[in-house]
Design a protein that fits this description.
Rossmann fold
Length: about 200
């Protein structure tokens, strides 16, 4: 499959469960899938066999699963692997939405493949699936300036101004759902990246 097309079956939003973490930068992936669910009038339900919360949306006549792993970030792969194995879905049919410290708030980017960049959720998904070849939505949350500060930084809430920028990015990313559902990763990238 070309990196410029996508046969999208699942969107995974990465985050940590519980009220303590719900507003932290590390939960930007959760915020994205929650916004997709709102837009397409879907609701999440807990699915123990998938170690997470699951919803199904219909976009452009295509059904897409939304998954929020409830395993905590560094064990996200357990949830993703369980869902993919059950429905016989390939790694290149998923989009993983996650916080990205290497992009500033106000920037969201789509990409295919690549490493984990130190992101524990991505690292665990790569380990469980045995491949890096899945699609990602990188939601910029900014960098604290030193790698020693990253863990503390992502587990804290963004400022109001930063949150506004992140929410704008998420809205922009939700707006390319029709292109993603139609299989045109290139069109989705062009539309999203021209806004960020």
């Amino acid at each position: 499959m070309s990196s410029r097309s996508i046969d999208l079956k699942v969107i995974v939003g990465l985050g940590n469960p519980g009220a303590k973490y719900s507003e932290t930068r590390h939960n930007a992936g959760f915020w994205f899938v929650e916004q997709v669910a709102r837009k397409y009038a879907a609701s999440f339900r807990n699915e123990k066999k998938f170690f997470g919360d699951l919803a199904k949306v219909a976009v452009e006549g295509r059904e897409i699963w939304l998954l929020k792993p409830e395993t905590f970030m560094n064990r996200s792969g357990q949830s993703v692997q369980a869902l993919l194995s059950f429905y016989r879905i390939n790694a290149d049919q998923i989009l993983v939405a996650h916080d990205e410290i290497d992009l500033p708030p106000g920037t969201a980017k789509l990409k295919t493949g690549g490493g984990h960049g130190g992101h524990n959720g991505l690292r665990d998904i790569i380990n469980h699936l045995g491949t890096k070849d899945f699609h990602r939505l990188r939601i910029g949350v900014g960098h604290p300036g030193s790698k020693d500060l990253v863990v503390d930084y992502v587990l804290h809430n963004p400022s109001r101004d930063e949150r506004d920028l992140i929410e704008r990015d998420i809205d922009d990313a939700v707006s390319v759902m029709p292109e993603l559902a139609a299989g045109s990763l290139e069109q989705a990238m062009h539309k999203l990246h021209s806004r960020s």
